[in-house]
Design a protein that fits this description.
It contains nine helices and five strands. By secondary structure, the chain is an alpha+beta fold. A five-stranded antiparallel sheet has the order 2-1-3-5-4, with no helix packed on it.
Length: 210
């Protein structure tokens, strides 16, 4: 029953935000009901500037499975790096997280499932168990799945019904024997984020953070 409730919650999140978030692992939310949840979901209403910025920020937060405090930390760190766009810097970092890479390799059906696999020590980085979902991979790092991980329900589900059919060009995936491994051959690109969002609105939401 808990799984059903969680699935419904993920549908409602995507319908409220008006976008499919692959990281939640639930496809078809907008196809089933292309409007917001609740009895007033079909009514069109004008959103305030505050709400528009809030929803845009929440797209990033919910897709990557972050709490507000975690996202604010990424914003703070990204702003300290002198680049043309701190939002691009943040997205590159989030796309480099181990749980996200496991998901993008189609080794897990969602980012929460990928996080579980990492926490349960089903993933190796450079031959060593790494059970920190937020570990940020570097170019040249090699990611492998353990024998136990390759037999897990999350992995088998992802292989049967991959949430995203293609993987980013920054990842080079190979099959060794009966198992898969991958190398991060380049930094992810900001464009690798698998859903549409307005960077400007996220910048405006967090403009006070130094």
């Amino acid at each position: 029953m808990a799984k059903i409730d969680m699935g419904r919650a993920r549908f409602k999140i995507q319908r409220r935000l008006g976008v499919e978030l692959p990281g939640l692992g639930k496809a078809g939310a907008l196809e089933r009901k292309p409007y917001g949840p609740g009895q007033h979901g079909m009514q069109r209403k004008k959103l305030s500037d505050y709400t528009i910025r809030l929803l845009e920020k929440q797209k990033v937060m919910f897709h990557y499975g972050l709490r507000e405090t975690q996202l604010r930390t990424y914003v703070h760190k990204s702003k300290k790096i002198k680049t043309a766009s701190w939002v691009d810097t943040m997205i590159v970092t989030l796309e480099s997280r181990l749980d996200n890479v496991v998901f993008r390799l189609n080794w897990a059906p969602s980012i929460p499932a990928a996080r579980q696999m990492v926490s349960h020590k089903h993933i190796l980085v450079n031959g060593k168990v790494t059970n920190v979902p937020g570990y940020v991979l570097k170019v040249g790092d090699v990611i492998e799945i353990t024998d136990t991980g390759a037999k897990s329900g999350n992995y088998l589900q992802a292989k049967t019904r991959p949430r995203i059919s293609s993987i980013p060009a920054c990842l080079n995936k190979q099959t060794v024997g009966e198992k898969e491994k991958a190398t991060l051959v380049a930094k992810p690109l900001p464009e690798d984020i698998p859903f549409a969002f307005e960077k400007r609105l996220v910048i405006e939401w967090y403009w006070k953070i130094k």
